[in-house]
């Protein structure tokens, strides 16, 4: 974590993607990555090397636990473009058995933080000590989820709306590191957010195909946790 790592603990990167109707991401590999996909709009057809043919959408989540070897293809269905966020995590160890999971959800509502994926006791299972929550926040101050797991790192993805946290403001498409000392955030406008929390000290495999540390393999270090729009990291 820091100048020698392109990620943040077991959080390899976070991507915001936008694809037009008819777009196809042809069959491609993943290896030693835990990939959580959250679709905001549109529908994606998922096909993979394990024989799955499934749709994911704003009411259907997906986690790819790629393990030792996994390939998949994605096709944008229908007439609507797809906006999606992909959280690429680093697994606890290398070359686990590959698997893929899907979970039905309801559209996010103005309720307390909803746990979507974790190592256990969640709709989708991650093979690393991490927690993914979403929430719809009305205007006002909101407590962050409480954690009793020791040292943590957190990243907030603003999917819609305006947020202020730690004295800084963030808008739709922004991705920001959140201090482990922060207790709350303020919604300046109604907002939909995704919160990624990871154990800061647990060991993990750092050389996944998509989640791995890229600093040592590129002459110019990338910005951590890349997004396709503004990406800023407040402490």
UniProtKB/TrEMBL annotation:
SUPFAM superfamilies: RmlC-like cupins. Residues 26-79 form the Pirin N-terminal domain. This is Pirin domain-containing protein. Gene3D superfamilies: Jelly Rolls. It holds the Pfam family Pirin. It comes from the Bacteria. Transmembrane segments: none annotated. Belongs to the pirin family.
